[in-house]
Amino acid sequence: MRILITGGYGFLGKSICNNLESKGIKEITNVNDSGEGYYRFRKKDFDLINKSECLELINKFNPEKIIHAAAKVGGIGANKKYPADFFYENLMMGANLIDSCKNTNINKIILIGTVCSYPKITPVPFKESSFWHGYPEETNAGYGIAKKTLLTQAISYKQQYGIDFTYLLMVNLYGIGDNFDDQSSHVIPALIKKFVDAKNNDLKSVEVWGTGNATREFLYVDDATEAIVRTIDKPGSFEPMNVGNGFEVTIKQITSMIKTIVGYNGEIVFNSNYPDGQPRRCLDTTLSKQNLGDYANTSLYEGLKKTIEWYNEAL
Predict the structure, then answer these.
(1) pLDDT at 136 over 90
(2) Taking Cα atoms as reference points, which of 24, 23, 19, 25 lies closest to residue 37?
(3) Is the CB of residue 119 less than 8 Å from the CB of residue 136?
(4) Distances from the Cα of 83 to the Cαs of 80, 135, 145, 146, in angstroms?
(5) Residues 162-205 pLDDT 10s
(6) Is 167 a catalytic residue?
(7) Is 281 exposed, middle or buried (0-12, 13-18, 19+ CB in 10 A)?
(8) Is residue 256 part of a domain?
(9) Of 4, 245, 252, 306, which cross-links 63 as Cys (Cβ 3.0–4.6 Å)?
(10) DSSP letters along 127-191, please?
(11) What is the arithmetic mean of pLDDT over 297-309?
């Protein structure tokens, strides 16, 4: 088969490509090459926000399946500062891509959604049946609504054009190769960087945003990738499917765990002047485990240890 990977040079995309390679699916390095394999590209070559470039990409590579992993992502701070960018770029990348697939040989699109699309107040654990029952938490509503809208588009295009799709709702991902930028990183890489920096610079304390009482669910990136790849040959559904570990931890707990693994001996200061974001996040993963088997095989401690070791070596 010919598989197009959007965002193939990003954090999740690289892991997807590595997984495909491990299964014997080789990379096609030139968009005009024939034969089977997967193709990934950089934004400078094909910008999905530009509809004509998106059409050019589809017409040149002529894929059978697409894994849409490209996204503009970031933590609470970045989402609060650039809500319009998060909404527009994520919406347009997905909308252009899906529309470019009509009347082609593409028989399957795998769309990567986000737990941020769930309503702010959702019974825990989040079940797929609650997906449409309210508005997302305000600090990342632009991002959540943009990704949510793509499910509606995919449903419409399946009805009119027969394009099959799978829509996966991901929890917070972390792991080797994550984004550690101060302005745009998610909670785990942001905390790892803070504690490593504090240890290396002999700082007496580390400030953590929020009360620490909010809960989150985290999934190691390679486990998420395994779930994604397992959907390639499975029939799609009009309903979204949760992908995660199925358990939640408080920010205080994850902070303490990272502090211990890093070996930092100073104080943790929680700054409640900053928002916690959504109060609780934890997915019901019954459906994905029934359809995909056991894919979440990396414990939180093991995943954090691997990530911290990699980050220290990369410094």
Answers:
(1) yes
(2) 25
(3) yes
(4) 6, 15, 11, 11
(5) 999 999 999 999 999 999 998 889 999 999 999 999 999 999 99
(6) no
(7) buried
(8) no
(9) 4
(10) PGGGTTSSPBPGGGHHHHHHHHHHHHHHHHHHHHH--EEEEEEE-EEE-TT----TTT--HHHHH
(11) 98
257 located within any domain: no
- Residue 44 located in a structural domain: yes
pLDDT computed for residue 225 by the predictor: 98
Distance of alpha carbon 4 from alpha carbon 8, whole angstroms: 9
Rounded-to-integer distance, Cα 133 and Cα 8, Å: 33
pTM flag (> 0.90): yes
* CATH number of residue 229's parent domain: 3.40.50.720
Catalytic residue among 143, 157, 174, 264: 143
Q: Is residue 139 part of a domain?
A: yes
Number of structural domains the chain divides into: 1
- Give me the percent of the chain exceeding a pLDDT of 90: 94
Predicted confidence band of residue 269 (pLDDT cuts 50, 70, 90)? very high
Contact present, 177 and 239 (Cβ < 8 Å) = no
Letter string b/e over residues 221-242, b meaning 16 or more CB atoms within 10 A of that residue's CB? bbbbbbbbbebbeeebbeebbb
The per-residue pLDDT for 182 is 84
